[in-house]
Amino acid sequence: MKRHGLLIQAILGLTAATLPLRADYAAEILADAPLVYYRFEESSGPVAANLGSLAGADGAYSGAGVALGAESASPVMGRAVALDGMEGFVGVPALDQPLAQFTLEMWLQRTYDWPGLTALYANDGWAGGFLHLNLVSSDSDPLIEFAVNGNPVPNPRFAPAWAVGEWHHVVVTYDSMANPPQLRLYFDGLPQPEVQLASAIPVSFTGGRLGMWDAQRQFEGLIDEFALYSSVLGADRIAARYQTVFPEARIAAQPADQVVLRGENAHFEITATGADLEYQWLRNGQEIAGATQPQYDLAAQTADDGARYSVRVSNQVNSVVSDEALLTVISEASILVQPADAYIGEGYSAVFGVVAQGPDLHYQWFRDGQAIAGATQPAYATGPVSLADEGAVFTVTVTNDVNGVTSVPARLTVFSMPSDVYGKTVIADEPLVYYRCDESGGLTARNLGRLGSAGEGSYAPSGVQFGGPSAFTGLGSAIWLDGFEGHVAVPALNEPLAQMTIELWLSRTYDWPGLTALVANDAWQSGALHLNLVEASPGPLVEFAVNGNSVIPRFNLEWGLSQWYYLTLTYDASAQPGQLKLYLDGALRAQVEIPGARAIAWTGGRLGSWTTSRQLEGSLDEFAWYDTVLSSERIEARYNAVQREVTIAAGPDDATVLEGASATFKVLATGPDRAYQWLRNGTPIEGAVADACTVTAVMADNGARFSVRVSNDVSSVTSAEAQLTVVGIPQTDYATTVLEDMPAVYYRFEETAGAVAQNLGSLGDAAAGAYSESGLSFDQASAGPELGRALRFAAGHVEVPDLGMGPVDQLTFELWLNRQSDPTDFFALFATHGWAASGLHFNIAAGALGEFAVNGNPTPWSHWSAGAIGQWNHWAATYDLAEGQAQIKVYVNGSLAATGAASTPILLDGGRIGRWGEQRAFDGYLDEVAIYSSTLAHEQVLRHYAAARIPEPVDEVELHYARLVGGELEISWTGPGFVLESTTDLSAPGAWVAVPEGVASPVRVLMQDVRQFYRLRKP
């Protein structure tokens, strides 16, 4: 028990001769003539002997949950009784008459806190005058509740701090005859805050129980030394009991810090327990002469400011020193931080502020010497300013009862806001910072944003050239940074940014190796932002790095040197997961999710520089920073404000699809009022006038080239052509289709037993796999009949020998999988031994992500969705180090799902399928594992997937038709996502074509003389 242990520790440090003689605890109790006094010293039997004056008031131990002879709080109290919280209690007989005054005391140790109410003492019923002393559950320690039926409610509750497993002395005194009635709780000998009762009635002790009322309100713990008096004991008598058990000096309440005016009284006070206490106050650790009481007062002077006061409490047993309390002495009003000049654009509000100290401060702001009505706070906002406010001077007077002081003057500078369309578009979205970079010299980058002068930038003294040409004449001039010393310093922002947008116009004239900083915090602490360019070809990658984020995304824009680009990033760390989007020339180019994204803490930094090795060489213009996420429409509006001509930012891309499937070509264009016309082999496609074009692929389309013409009233541009590759459904079985592409390793997992996984690939038996002795189940159902049987993995693996291929520049890894659970770290599908340079790990990572990781490749590694648990999927990852095309491609069920960067050969010196370490074993089914020393083309991967002949799920659909007047046929259906197709020849599978407008029900078609067949197909 905590206090017991402290007491023994103190005693061991003294000689026997110095120990005070302890009074007998029972004698202390009996000296106050209790009616009932149970010591609980019995070792057996049903009777709790009453040592008090009331005859026939013995208690009764009841229930199997009573354990006698338990250890008490101290040897001076002998033994205690333990109650199990279910059956055990002590019955207390009835008293002869109600008690208008009484004291009830006991020692308690809780060993469990029941929810709701727990009874300490309870009358057998709940009639008028009945008492229930309860524990009430709370968020921390339980409250002590004093409830008398007939007294006003709510019932008084006390909140002492006491933990489970600690012994405590609890005393309640009650006086219904006082005016007003008095109720007080003493805890460990000290009075708790007094409770005033509006009225009170005498308490009828008609018989009750210790530790129980009903089956839901039972006490689990130990009780000792229960006593009931017909009088109100004084605080000294209650303290004497506690000190009999614990005589050592203890501090119950520490002295508190004090803040006072010069000359006022500073009062320090302590509450302590223990016998024969002596006090000595200390100032900064030195004794204060004559300060030997529980309280210490002094008239505070300026020299006392910052002094720390403590008290040493001692007796014959021990000595203890309190915490230090700080004294702060304040006097006259004074200004700590003066108001600063404001530099603000017309239409914005300027804010002036002052930081002052002193008691009872009052403020009054002045403009040009005249008091401003209502401006009586530490800060003053002007409201929207105009050019007429230019040069106004603001001051503030701070006063109290002692004195008054006037601030230095702060001058208001107002500048004209942009008149051009672009500038107005930016200002309309209220950026924090907006540098137009139109200065002709000097060191100040004027801020047109909301922060005004507080957000001004600073040009480096050298390395910055002004007045250069910008992207468009409407943007004014630009600055050029030399890549060595040139940069723009951006001051700190007041608050972290959970949402933000950064935009700038940029023309790079040289790409440095490694990293180049566009926007960078001065340091790399938590939440710091570094927006970098990372060396790559063609064109650097854009890297968005926030210290503390789990992901540092990089984007490949393929953008050239000495050309102007409009770059925008939006970031939302308040979303779950965080969202990052990158726009180039007003068009969305990439987006990524960042789990657990952090707010950005901009503590000051630079544009175009971080360290001397990461500096930008090129032109910058129109830098703006917002504390909001701009919409794609607002970002496009900026670009359109200066760029009227249409441009094609991306697409269309080549497409590879199976015969009968849909192929979609999409273009990303910029410019206002755009119109689209898609072309097939240079010929316009009727009705294809959106930014995307979808066709149903037939073999006749193989090799067809699709482009799009984008135009507006100013210009017209035609995209590059995208080729459509149509893959016919293989006529061979799955294994034959795979073997036609010459895999080095091909495990079909058709064995029903044994230790060897047969290799059908070109390496033959030299690359046969070895099944582990346990953790594998053979002869399992695969994704479809074409694939035969599969292998179930549950902590087992297949050992793959050294393939003798050395480091390879080209590789394809292919398999079918069906996972049965998600990993907390990752599952290994295939892993080379160890994690050496050029080692391969093909995984399922936490978060249900596929992962293709090669040691030495740049991070982040390639990731894609692993799909749902319990579903079969076909995965193929290709790896190609061909010069200028180093890349990874991952296909899921025949469709491109992820790409990544490749930079190092892969070393296949053996490994395992389905396991890496002890904690990374795959849980699920694998089948048809193939490894190729070549890079399969998309059409080859698609042929493999199609050869498995896995039927795609089809939603339920109903097709209806109705003849209409005028020779029309109305075709309607239910079910989403279907396309209506028609043909005149059912014998030609490739003759089906999509019906114009056939993506939404109903469709009307003209009935013709030839037979026309219709069908619905899920693309």
State the helical fraction.
under 10%
- What is the radius of gyration? 42 Å
Largest sheet: 9 strands, antiparallel
**Overall body shape:** extended
Mean pLDDT: 89
Task: Show unreliable segments.
Answer: 1-21
Roughly what fraction of the amino acids lie in strands?
Answer: 35-45%
Number of helices: 7
What's the end-to-end separation, in Å?
74 Å
The structure class reads mainly beta
Number of strands: 87
Write the topology of this structure.
Layout: H1 2-12, H2 25-30, E1 36-38, E2 47-48, E3 59-62, E4 66-71, E5 79-84, E6 89-92, E7 101-110, E8 117-123, E9 131-136, E10 143-148, E11 157-158, E12 167-175, E13 182-187, E14 190-191, E15 195-196, E16 208-210, E17 220-229, H3 235-245, E18 250-253, E19 258-261, E20 265-269, E21 271-273, E22 278-283, E23 286-287, E24 295-299, E25 308-314, E26 319-321, E27 325-330, E28 334-337, E29 342-345, E30 349-353, E31 355-357, E32 362-367, E33 370-371, E34 379-384, E35 393-399, E36 404-406, E37 410-415, H4 421-428, E38 433-435, E39 444-445, E40 457-459, E41 464-469, E42 477-482, E43 488-490, E44 499-510, E45 515-521, E46 529-534, E47 541-546, E48 554-556, E49 565-572, E50 578-584, E51 587-594, E52 605-607, E53 617-626, H5 632-642, E54 647-650, E55 655-658, E56 662-666, E57 668-670, E58 675-680, E59 683-684, E60 692-696, E61 705-711, E62 716-718, E63 722-727, H6 734-739, E64 745-747, E65 756-757, E66 769-771, E67 776-781, E68 789-794, E69 798-800, E70 807-808, E71 810-819, E72 826-832, E73 840-845, E74 849-854, ...
Parallel strand pairs: 19-27, 29-37, 55-63
Antiparallel strand pairs: 1-17, 2-3, 3-6, 4-5, 5-17, 6-16, 7-12, 7-17, 8-9, 8-16, 9-10, 10-11, 12-13, 13-14, 13-15, 18-21, 20-24, 22-23, 22-25, 25-26, 25-27, 28-31, 30-34, 32-33, 32-35, 35-36, 35-37, 38-53, 39-40, 40-43, 41-42, 42-53, 43-52, 44-49, 44-53, 45-46, 45-52, 46-47, 47-48, 49-50, ...
Helix pairs in contact: 4-5
